Amino acid sequence: MSRVVAPHIYVIFGATGDLTHRKILPALYNIVSRNGVGEKCYILGASRSDWTDEKFRDVARDSLTKKGLDLTSWNDNHVFYQSLGKKSDDFAGLKARIEALEAEFNLPGNRVFYLSIPPQVYPSTIEALGNAGLNTSPGWTRVVIEKPFGHDLESAKALNHTVHAHFSEEQVYRIDHYLGKETVQNLLVFRFANALFESQWNRDRIERVEITVAENLGIGGRAGYYDRSGALRDMVQNHIAQLFTLIAMEPPTCFEADAIRQEKIKVLQALQPIDPFEDVVFGQYTAGEVDGEAVPGYREEADVPSDSRTETYVGLRLHVNNWRWQGVPFYIRTGKRMAETLTRIAVCFNRAPVSIFRNNGSPNLNRNILLITLKPEEGFDLRFEVKSPGEPFNVKTQQFRFRYDDVFGHVPEAYETLIFDTMVGDQTLFVHAEEAEMSWKYFLPLLTQHVAVYPYAAGSWGPSKTQTLNEHWNAGGNALSKG
Fold this sequence. Notes:
This protein has a nine-stranded mixed sheet with strand order 16-15-14-13-7-12-11-8-17. A six-stranded parallel sheet has the order 3-2-1-4-5-6. It is an alpha/beta fold and 483 residues long. α9 packs across α10 (257-269). It contains 14 helices and 17 strands.
């Protein structure tokens, strides 16, 4: 696949919103300034606000300045704005503006539509694009849809139905910013370009896999969204499901989007049904201390009902019923107000079958562990055993360490990577329609089973009940989480 950017218009719906100015515009700035595509990309902001080109440019300039960025001349000649008015189904003005810009700058009709808008208006916006004839063009047309993709299985199916009524699957880019992280992408290279690891990536060599996505922050001002969503909808169904399938997937036939996505779907198809009372722990944070600061419990947060049972923590034990992973548990945990902000995958290999050092004072050797860290520092660590110098005989755990920043310097932000992929037409890191539906189908029923919600103190590693899933996890954390 060519990675060359063709001249195009990048239309941002929700151009006046926070995501546009906090993530999308800085990502576009980095792309046009670092990849030499500045003369090929024209940005058209679109929203209901009655702004002008000049107003949008001023706000865009301020957003970049706050991040220490400045691309004033490009901004003044390549950034435009179109008010959509008050009618949700009238995009005639938008179409006319796009065509006028294409004529003015001699563009071939290539268009990206980025939906940085509330999920409840995805269907009406997609229908309006189709009804206005903006789902086709003289060049190519792509539509980028932010998460969450639906609220449950039925809404995801309904949204897919609406999308496919106007766009083909090849035109659709369901974005999950976790998949834009360099370490996530490098999972594919790490596994399938290194025979050393791929040959060990199975039930014969791996004892368990642990995936931790922890945040020390609370819900902030997002109670209106979060209390209707919870940790399972907010994190497990999308971000964590994607990490899990990349770790567990079989080798694709080639490094192309369709081949990779099909292998991810096969993992979801092979998942063993979850026992909601044996394989699940839900939790909700109570008052505690994070980084030396006292913080309130979830029910004391602004606009959260005092009797809320919304889970802010999810612990899961998953099993994949296939040849590679039979009998290997995958442990997943994610939560708010935890001990630290950390996204890490721990691949825990089996211990040596016999310790020949048991008579030398080292009866219980630690297992080899591969740590894949996405946050805060993207990189890999491999833990192994060595003898410490001198006497008495003693075995110590050491590690090989690799960090992207140390070797490559600047690492692109996730949105930068994903937005660039939408420009070149690479769907490898985007979610397929079937993936979105299968993930809802598998995880959502847990919310209907009346699973108990256990309290955990803010600043801890979650409910102590989690230890019933994985004895290596407990409320105090462990070396895999913190080391």
